[in-house]
Request: fold
Amino acid sequence: MHTPIDSNALATLFSEARTHSAWLDKAVPDALLEQLYEHVRLGPTAVNSCPGRFVFVRSAEGKQKLAPCLSKGNLDKTLAAPVTVIIAYDEDFPETLPELFPFADARSWYAGQPALITENALRNSSLQAGYLILAARAFGLDCGPMSGFDGKALDEAFFAGTSWKSNPADQPRLRRRQQAARPPATPALRPRLRPRLMENRPCNWLNAKPPVNSALQ
Ligand SMILES: Cc1cc2nc3c(=O)[nH]c(=O)nc-3n(C[C@H](O)[C@H](O)[C@H](O)COP(=O)(O)O)c2cc1C
Reply:
């Protein structure tokens, strides 16, 4: 049991956190990215499989490789971001299970089951992408997740000949947040999209009576 985080921290992580498309002209240091991953890696995954793989694209060369994989609408803002993280998963993750989950022969559960491997890898690397977004926010970075890219082209450019595949869900772009605890909204931000799904639509509350017309707010 831990002390609940305060309202400022909740605002940083959720209520005031937004999806961004414009970036400050500030570098994101390697040490910060390392610290970020130190926390992301602790997020839970099924059988501690940790199938997510993270490629931090920052150099001009990396961006050049990335550019042809991006949809038109995502091109300029992604290239302008100080860091883009490609979220991938490793189809060979069962090989790591003897080390990561030594309590059972978990590797054998996946043997000869490519569909199960892909399902587990996709689900858990997507979770890890979510952990990364929240960790980035916690470390003072803003994110702009996106799935507008050509996964096949990305895999060919970055992962040819390996067991890694891009997760089609999202590739967060990171930027350094302004120093103010609550950053001013950038001009590129539209008002937050509403409705968000509420209560009974995304959550099946056990024993709860669905409130009429309260699903959207
Ligand atoms: C998996 C995923 C894929 C997304 N794909 C794109 C995208 O390709 N391009 C884009 O501009 N925004 C993309 N977004 C951003 C969403 O539209 C945005 O997070 C949503 O409208 C909520 O905005 P808010 O965080 O400012 O409230 C994506 C977000 C997620 C989580």
About this structure: Residues 195 and 217 are 5 Å apart (CA to CA). The chain has one domain: 7-176. The radius of gyration is 19 Å. The first helix runs from residue 7 to 15.
